[in-house]
Amino acid sequence: MTDRLTPILTDSWDVPRAWTLPVYRDRGGYRALAKARGMSTEDLVNAVKGSGLRGRGGAGFPTGLKWSFLPAPDGGPRYLVVNADESEPGTCKDVPLMMANPHVLVEGVAITSHAIGCDHAFIYLRGEVVHVYRRLLAAVREAKEAGLLGSLEITVHAGAGAYICGEETALLDSLEGRRGQPRLKPPFPAVAGLYARPTVVNNVESIASVPGIVLGGGEWFSGMGTAKSTGHGIFSLSGHVTRPGQYEAPLGITLRELLELAGGIREGHELKFWTPGGSSTPILTAEHLDVPLDFEGVAGAGSMLGTRALQIFDETVSVVRAVARWIDFYKHESCGKCTPCREGTFWLQQIMHRLVAGKGTAEDIETLSDAAGNILGRSFCALGDAAATPIQSGLQYFREEFEAGTHTPADELFPPRASLIVPAASQEVPA
């Protein structure tokens, strides 16, 4: 099964001091940047278009096409902003990538900046990950002092830690010093983004994939994955698996294959439900083990590929309790700008807490379904959708558990200690 892995971005993660410039250059680093500088901006954009690279931050929009949306140069500045505000529950790919291999991101930023005519690029990082912040600052400094960046300025900015700032326009407002809230679109960032100038906003993994495409060529990249979801990606497996971690593989691999690589579900248990792209994506079940993990395959199963955050839950877990925890998160992280999300997440939280406590009513379940349906597609940004989808999919596949919340607490039906992951020598856990 290991031949299904494609260690490209993750290939150097176990190399001593992989985050330093000398080690990165010894492994071929910055050769792609040298090659890119000998190419025209049009050729670079076309190379990324031809590769079929789609955004790795969740939406899956074609990266090269996004670059081509920038208007013709008018003599004013244009910007590249890298969205490193990774905060989706279950998602853990960009932070370890930046920690272990920050120079591949810096090189990707330099190549992309050259392709779009940018002289000042920004990396917007979550402020909580101070260790990654320091490592990025050091990588940018190393590249600058080595003369690799030329006149390009790269600013690494630490945000204050708000989930909403993962939305690209809220990120731009935060970067400008405003409160992080989504903007009305249009205008889109490509026309009026950072400081009202043409701006490209891309995810960390998207930009980090660019050096490989420049060196290997678009056909090399599109030779992996599927026809419409090309290339490789980092899949984050967490929860009730034997070996949780990051697995870099071609898009289109299945959860069944990834579970085999990860040693399967923990011994003595079986898969109950899982998320293909973090808590904001509709949950799937064991019947979806063979769904291709690409944009089209997962959408066809009724969910979204998202950030490829595969949260794995076995039969010991209460769906109601898990969904309630996610709703707590989304209610807390709602920026409050729009009524469906601000008020809707509050109502969802109250109902979910009653169901977890076994004090819900039959009317609660209908209200829950109705409220989620009225939030979905009606909120200002996708945060409202993120709160609604796990409830709708939970009701679709596990309605009987929600109905049980009208008479029995979730902790009685699914004792929390049964779902704990603890070392074999420490099985005695307080009740």
TrEMBL record:
PROSITE patterns: COMPLEX1_51K_1 (PS00644), COMPLEX1_51K_2 (PS00645). GO terms for biological process: cellular respiration. It comes from the Bacteria. The keyword Metal-binding applies. The keyword Transcription regulation does not apply. Residues 320-365 form the NADH-ubiquinone oxidoreductase 51kDa subunit iron-sulphur binding domain. One of its GO terms (molecular function) is FMN binding. Keywords: 4Fe-4S, Flavoprotein, FMN, Iron, Iron-sulfur, Metal-binding, NAD, Quinone, Translocase. It catalyses: a quinone + NADH + 5 H(+)(in) = a quinol + NAD(+) + 4 H(+)(out). Its EC number is 7.1.1.-. It holds the Pfam family NADH_4Fe-4S. Its cofactor is FMN; [4Fe-4S] cluster. Coiled coil: none annotated. SUPFAM superfamilies: Nqo1 FMN-binding domain-like, Nqo1 middle domain-like, Nqo1C-terminal domain-like. Belongs to the complex I 51 kDa subunit family. NDH-1 shuttles electrons from NADH, via FMN and iron-sulfur (Fe-S) centers, to quinones in the respiratory chain. This is NADH-quinone oxidoreductase subunit F. It comes from Serinibacter salmoneus.
